[in-house]
Every structure is written in C-alpha cells, then in structure tokens.
Amino acid sequence: MNNIAIWYRYFGIPEQTLELETAPVGLLTPGFMRVRMQFSPMNASDLTPITGAYGHRVVPPLVAGYEGVGEVIAAPESWSHLVGKRVLPLRGQGTWQSFVDCRSEFAIPVSDWIPSDLAARAYINPVAALMMLRLYVPEGKRVLLTAAGSDCGLLLGQWAIRLGARSVTGIHRSTAHATRLAACGITSVSQKDAGAIRRFASESDLVFDATGGELATAILQQLPESSTFVCYGLLSGIPFKQQHPRPLVRWFHLRNYLDGLNSRQWHSLFSEIWPLLNTSMYSDSVRYPVTSWKEAICFYREPGRSAKPLLVMN
Ligand SMILES: NC(=O)c1ccc[n+]([C@@H]2O[C@H](COP(=O)([O-])OP(=O)(O)OC[C@H]3O[C@@H](n4cnc5c(N)ncnc54)[C@H](OP(=O)(O)O)[C@@H]3O)[C@@H](O)[C@H]2O)c1
C-alpha cells in the first residue's frame, strides 16, 4: 500500500518548496490508529510554517497540513469500535497525505450529521477562535477584528456577538467580504478607510489582529490605554510596532494551550465546537485532487475568495 504525501524538506515559498511524494506505508505504532484521509483544507496556518516563519519550533522535513477528516482503517483493540468511522486525526503527523497515523486518544470521532467538508475544517480556526474568546472575554466589550473575512475572523466575530459583545467591527481587505460580515451582524470597514479605522480603533476595548504590519501599528496608536490587543497572526508578514506599554498586547498561539489539555478536556472542546459550527456562517469549500495542490494554492491566494480549498486525498 502506498502513501501519497505533500512534503516540505526545507523552508521556502510553498509553491516552490512543496513536493508530492509516494512511498510505501510503514508499520503502525502501538497505541496509534491509522486513518485513510478524505479531505484536508488549506489554511494560512498550513502555508505560513512552510516559509520558516515559525522556524524555532516547526522544522522540516515535514508533511504539510494540520487538519482534515478521514476514515479509520486500523486501531488498537480498545478503539476498534471506530474502525470504518470518520475521525479527525489531529495533533500528530501532517494531514496532507493519504494515510495519517495518530495517537488514538487524540482522534476526534465525527457524528454522522456533520458533513465531511465541514468536519475537515473543525479544528485550527474554530478551536483557536473559541479559546481566544475564553481567554479574552468579549461580553460588554466593543470588539475590533482585522482580516475579518478570514474563517477565523468570521467565527471570532459571530461568537463574540453570541457571548455578549457590545459591538463587533470587522476590517476587511477585499470589499467582497462586506456582505457576509453584515449578514453576521458585524459592522464592516474597508482596510483602505484609514479614517474609519482610526475612529473605530479609538472606541475599541478588545482587538483580535491577524495582519500585523501597518494596520496593526495604526490600530495600536489609536486604541484606548484600557483596551487589549490580541495578536494571533501575521498575514502581512510584517511585525507591528508597539510604541507604548499600554494598551496591553497579548500573543495567542493555539499550540501553547493544547499541551495543558488532558484527553477528556480535548474531546469536550469538540462537543462545544460541533453545535457552534453547525449554527455559524463559515466559508464554502472547493475541492481539489491532491495532485492539483498547486492550483489549490493559487485559488487560496485569490483576494476576496469566500471558499476554502479542500484537498481530496483519496
Ligand atoms: N495563532 C493561532 O493559533 C492561529 C490559529 C488559527 C488561525 N490563525 C491565524 O488566523 C489568520 C486567518 O487564518 P484563516 O485560515 O482563517 O484565513 P483564511 O480563511 O484563509 O483567509 C485569509 C484571509 O486573510 C486576508 N489577508 C491575507 N493577507 C492579508 C493582509 N496582508 N492584510 C489583510 N488581510 C489579509 C484575506 O483577505 P482578502 O480575501 O481580502 O484578500 C483572507 O480573507 C491567519 O493569520 C492564521 O495564521 C492563528
């Protein structure tokens, strides 16, 4: 049996660095289950590490991809009830491959009512959004988002409203995102509208920023001292400048919070995520055969897209 996997063996631009490789499937480690992958999405969180942006903790050679869904084809005796069922094989090997082996206790079973293309995207962005909102409670606050058209931004905005935010404003780069933001109850502001950004920033209590660069610097200059600025991404690739000790700036990295969760807490997180996702607006998905991964990246980079590329692994 052969495994097809998308590897990066050194850092670089994903389009130039990734390689599709085929190799025989190895032996299954005791305690692990083997999952035949169906779909794996393409997120910013998958592409950014390939560039070396997190070179201090993510070091190639590695198979790319952090999430996806597949069917269990082999499992230890105590998990044999999951054979033939769909799971998310998380927190282990890269998911952009046909077979993923994962520690059995970390595999998240997927209920029959959840479509596979949604299940494939239930981890990185939903769990990050939920954890950030637990750490930085939005209730009664005026919340400001950047990259608001992103999956993570869209969930942050919708769930902040449910959790009692006084208002949520979303800054977006492409105008294509404005309608969807409005439908979610999020006030949309164009990233080109410097005046509106200054005004909203000066009235914000809590910022979730995924862009860094000039936009983050401009927001920080206007924020009241009492507010909190949470940086969880650097889509511009440019760090921001903080000129004063206040407002508070906090960094969020999902992986820093996962190590502290035991298996029960890890599973209970998803029992919260499924109903939340099922009742939230999320992007559509567009399927690409794994062999067309370059086209998938090309689609991923299109400004204003409202769908996620999903690699079809089998
Ligand atoms: N820290 C963590 O643990 C963690 C966990 C999950 C996600 N994240 C971060 O969350 C962010 C969003 O990820 P995602 O998967 O939700 O993204 P996504 O759905 O793939 O969307 C990417 C979005 O980013 C926008 N964008 C790209 N470059 C930009 C720039 N320079 N300035 C402003 N907007 C820009 C695009 O806007 P247009 O469509 O307008 O071009 C697009 O809406 C990423 O930074 C990711 O690293 C962090």
Features:
single chain; 314 residues; alpha/beta; Quinone Oxidoreductase, Chain A, domain 1; Rossmann fold; seven-stranded mixed beta sheet; 11 helices; 29% helix; binds NADP nicotinamide-adenine-dinucleotide phosphate
Can you characterise this structure?
This protein is an alpha/beta fold. The chain has two domains: 2-121 and 282-312, Alpha-Beta Complex (Quinone Oxidoreductase, Chain A, domain 1), CATH 3.90.180.10; 128-255, NAD(P)-binding Rossmann-like Domain (Rossmann fold), CATH 3.40.50. 29% of the residues lie in helices and 26% in strands. It contains eleven helices and 16 strands. It has helices spanning 14-17, 44-47, 116-119, 124-135, 151-162, 178-183, 194-202, 213-222, 254-258, 263-278, 293-300, and strands at residues 2-8, 19-24, 32-41, 62-63, 69-74, 86-89, 99-103, 107-109, 142-145, 167-172, 187-190, 206-209, 228-231, 248-251, 284-289, 307-312. Helix 8 (213-222) links the parallel strand 12 and strand 13. Helix 7 (194-202) packs across helix 8. The longest helix has 16 residues, at 263-278. The site of NADP nicotinamide-adenine-dinucleotide phosphate has 29 residues, from helix 2, helix 4 and helix 5. NADP nicotinamide-adenine-dinucleotide phosphate is lined by residues 43-45, 48, 124-125, 128, 147, 149-152, 172-174, 177, 191, 210-211, 232-233, 235-236, 252-254, 303-305.
